[in-house]
UniProtKB/TrEMBL annotation:
Domain of life from the UniProt record: Bacteria
Species classification: Bacteria, Pseudomonadati, Myxococcota, Polyangia, Polyangiales
CDD domains with a match to the protein in the record: GT4_TuaH-like
Organism: Sorangium atrum
Record's protein name: Glycosyltransferase family 1 protein
Length: 384
């Protein structure tokens, strides 16, 4: 494999084995050209501090810090810095690209001398439940240090572009070939096979962004609708989830199994709450549902309304019109919908997003090393 530039140290608030989403898609692709170390948030246990490293793909290593159980915040930070410095020495990581998904990780890498700092702002984390009070201050520090800022959607780009001179919008993309499997003859998953139809399906994280009252209302208004809900429950009490015979909470399922579930759905739904936590989201599942060829009904999330609602690829509804929108999706012309969906899906891909990011990284690295460029030195090349 040709090394296309410095190693990449990625700091993520999401664990690698959580829902497979933006960090997984991008880091897997960057690992095709360079060593990638995906550093998760710490786990706390008895015993001395240590790092757990596991190779999940060629050139991609997941790093999990294990810290003392009752470590104070400053002690925990010092332990993580020490462990990271040891990793950098042992792996001979020199002037890496620092890639951050959370500003809270910035102090951990304080001793690392990066060639480039990238902030991939995929969500407005300060609006999420349980966000650290320091997060906004840390983000200001990160803006001051970052060379490039990427955002996970258009509305987030508009919110961040005044804070840094190099902000680029990279909305959630899609692995179209993977989700197009839902259009084929995939076998029915065992835990969905006995669910009657019509089926309304959702996959994703089940947290404060999901409007559980709307889920309950749809199930109550239309007992003939079967709601299949896939995903881990986090930050909310599972006991608060509505329980009705036609709501099926099936838990998290592997990414590779999602097309098989999708194939058996009649309508894919995005019953998001409209609150601070969803103000800037750009749901990855929108394009994934469309790639599967499914009609989609969503609440009025800004980055879903434009462009998907505007182009009639997604039905937009509120609590009072959601079931009517599902009926319209069920009865709408399938060929027309699939044609619109295919046009929107074909306009993007995670490969294309990765290549565009790689080009910006290569160009920025070159601009930071003008002497090497003038003398024909070793300057990482673009991957496009």
């Amino acid at each position: 494999m040709k090394q296309a530039g410095p190693d990449l140290l990625c700091f993520s608030h999401l664990r690698w084995n959580f829902v497979f989403q933006r960090p997984n898609h991008l880091m897997s692709r960057f690992a095709q050209e360079r060593r990638v170390y995906f550093v998760e948030e710490p786990m706390f246990e008895d015993g001395p501090p240590r790092l757990d490293a596991r190779h999940v793909e060629a050139n991609l290593t997941v790093i999990v810090p294990h810290l003392r159980r009752r470590a104070e915040p400053e002690e925990a930070l010092a332990q993580q810095r020490h462990l990271l410095n040891s990793l950098v020495r042992e792996q001979d990581i020199r002037q890496p690209i620092l890639w951050l998904y959370t500003p809270m990780s910035l102090p951990i890498a304080a001793d690392v001398e990066p060639s480039l700092v990238v902030y991939d702002c995929m969500d407005e984390l300060s609006a999420f439940r349980g966000a650290p009070p320091l997060l906004r201050d840390r983000e200001r520090e990160l803006f001051a240090r970052a060379d490039l800022v990427f955002t996970g959607g258009q509305s987030l780009y508009e919110a961040k572009r005044a804070h840094h001179p190099s902000v680029y919008a990279f909305p959630s993309s899609v692995d179209a070939a993977h989700f197009a499997k839902a259009r084929g003859q995939t076998s029915e998953p065992d835990d969905q096979r006995g669910v009657p139809r019509p089926r309304l399906g959702f996959f994703g994280v089940i947290d404060e962004r999901l409007d559980i009252d709307l889920v309950a209302r749809v199930a109550k208004e239309r007992p003939d609708f079967q709601l299949v809900m896939l995903g881990p429950v986090v930050k909310i009490d599972p006991a608060t989830l509505p329980r009705r015979p036609n709501i099926h909470w099936l838990g998290q399922r592997p990414y590779q199994d999602l097309p098989a579930y999708l194939r058996g759905w009649d309508v894919a739904i995005m019953p998001f709450a409209l609150n601070e936590a969803t103000r800037f989201i750009s749901p990855t599942k929108t394009l994934e549902y469309l790639a599967a060829g499914k009609p989609v009904v969503s609440t009025a999330i800004r980055d879903v309304v434009t462009p998907y609602g505007d182009k009639k690829a997604v039905h937009i509804a509120d609590a009072s019109t959601f079931t009517a929108a599902v009926d319209a999706a069920l009865s709408g012309p399938r060929e027309e919908h699939v044609a619109i969906a295919d046009e929107m899906v074909s306009a993007t891909s995670w490969d294309r997003t990765w290549r565009s990011m790689s080009t910006l990284i290569a160009d920025t690295l070159q601009s930071k090393r003008p002497s090497a460029a003038r003398t024909g030195g070793d300057v990482p090349c673009s991957t496009t």
